[in-house]
Amino acid sequence: MRVGLIDLGDKLPNLALMKLSTFHKAQGHQVLLQGFTPSQVDKVYISVVFTRLRKQAEKLLHIYPEAVVGGPGWDVKSTLPPEVESCRPDYDLYSAEFTASRLKGRTATRMDKAIRIVNSGLGFSSRGCNRECGFCSVPKNEGKLRQAAPIAELINPHSNVLTLLDNNLCADPLALDKLAEIRERGLTVNITQGIDVRALTPDLVQALSEVKHFGNLHFAWDQPQQESMVFRGIQLLSNWIKPYDQTCFVLTGFRSSFDEDMMRVRKLHEKKVRPYVQVFNDNEAGDLRLKHFRRWVNLFFYKRMAFDDYEPWRKVRESYFAQNPLF
User: Fold this and answer.
1) pTM assigned to the model
2) What SS3 class is residue 321?
């Protein structure tokens, strides 16, 4: 049987498709990733990572009407069958060339980054999360925090880099043991979902400081009223990790005013922690001011000028407020 896999996602390889590849190859099936025609495959899987890609998946269903579609962007409750979930990822599924084609930047830089990505270990040591944040689908999709796989099973033999997808490593009762194992194995870890700065303890901070991180250690300040808990965590973290090695994601467009969004960015800058703005999905296409605000912050213009002096926003500011009067 010939199996076709379609990845509607981001720059990272798709873990579900990698496990499906392992499952089918173990049965002697041929597996193809992207770029195939209906006549070349007998079965098709489509993985949709983001809701904004649903329409693209719907168009593909006209071409592959019998395709199996899943992923959080399609159905937050979709899961792999147990016999597939238990498979290790197929690290040969994604080529550096394919991954580089999904990245931005200069060709040589993209290829170097792509090689690093495809050679990294990838997976969850735990699934789910005990917090129930209103903007997050993880509790609905995965439920409460539970163990998933040992660190040893997530390692890619091609490198010592581990991309850890855990939703809340800091809330994991085994976090200290896992961080110790990462340190002892000499792994460089990329905790993609960040750390829960509100759940930090001195022991956790010390353990996090003793492992090598890929890039800045990042966390989130999702709601303005979390200020005291977030700043407590930043203070703990800063005892071991310099503020300039910390990045804080600021959720906007979800139960916060623009003034509150600006306040969080300003206070993080005062703490010498890099702010990074994210716009809630429901506002992704709607609020022009938040789009400009995100670019002003994420591209470091906030260090050089006031938001009202930021040229792209200044050009549309008058018309924006004409259409969105302040009450």
Assistant:
1) 0.85
2) helix
